Amino acid sequence: MITGATAGFGKAIAVKFAGNGYNIIITGRRKERLDELVKELSAYKVKVLALNFDVRNRYEVQDTIEKLPGEWKHIDILVNNAGLAVGMDHIDKGNIDDWDRMVDTNVKGLLYVTRAVAPLMVAGNKGHIFNISSIAGKEVYENGNVYCASKHAVTALSKAMRIDMLKNNIKVTNIAPGFADTEFSLVRFKGDKERAKAVYNGIEALRAEDIADVVYFCASLPGHVCINDLEITPTCQASVGYTDRKIQ
Ligand code: NDP
Ligand code: 8X3
User: Which of 50, 145, 199, 228 is geometrically suited to a Cys-Cys bond with 185, CB 3.0 to 4.6 A?
Assistant: First the structure.
């Protein structure tokens, strides 16, 4: 089950796992994108279930997962990927609606989905949860304040989930990507294409498929091996503050 499979990492992860024979539950708010992905995944001989919900709606999340048909209730892998940054301002000028969207999606949404799926894994004494945090969940940068705080919370939750479900044989892997060229910056800058494009000026950013490969690798390891945390950046990025940009 992959949250936020209508774009970016989530979509690439769905394609990667379907291509390797996994039945997939894809989720997201944009129904037409889910429908397109169902069509795309029909090229693989796997079953695909599309669930159209907003992770911020706790009742919808709970209800949808409770009502999953029996065969779909056996969720081996959950990828908590749905998330976003909105806006980039100094803390004294921040837009509080933007803050609410980030905290509600990146932290509370991830919690709602986990609260609904984790008991199914605990009941089966097996499972693997991936939380897509960020390099912004390890470091902070100017104007990144609330987004960074939300991703630091994801990093903390990954560690906490691992401890809480240690006795239930559940793996938890925190994934912390750096610059990746998806729809992320377009969303952050509210559709401003020029500003979004400038984020990746002079760099070869990660592609969504790079993260899908890493998640698949972690999921393919033997039962006794768990990767707890991985930070992945493009080669030109050493940390949030150090990026080698080749700009003429
Ligand atoms: P995209 O914008 O390309 O994809 C984001 C996905 O999240 C979409 O499928 C979107 O679906 C879904 N989503 C957003 N809000 C909600 C919501 N309220 N309910 C359900 N689904 C939602 O960005 P990325 O693929 O880059 O982002 C994926 C994750 O990776 C995010 O958590 C992001 O913070 C993180 N990340 C991104 C990095 C980057 O540089 N790109 C680097 C590090 C981490 P829909 O709109 O259809 O609901
Ligand atoms: C996205 C990476 O550095 O733009 O999480 O915050 S960054």
Answer: 199
Q: Give distance in angstroms: CA of 178 to centre of ligand 2.
A: 6
- Would the CB of 40 count as within 6 Å of ligand 1? no
> Which tens digits make up the pLDDT trace of 217-242?
999 999 999 999 999 999 999 999 99
Task: Count CB-CB contacts under 10 A for residue 67.
Answer: 10
**Is the per-residue pLDDT at 247 higher than 90?**
no
Res 138 pLDDT > 80: yes
Go through the domains of the chain in sequence order and give each one's CATH number.
8-179+207-239 (3.40.50.720)
> Ligand 2: distance of its center to the CA of 144 in Å?
8
Structure token digits, residue 70: 């029996």
- Enter the tokens of residue 176: 């912390």
Residues that are catalytic: 147
pTM of the model: 0.98
One-letter amino acid at 161 equals M
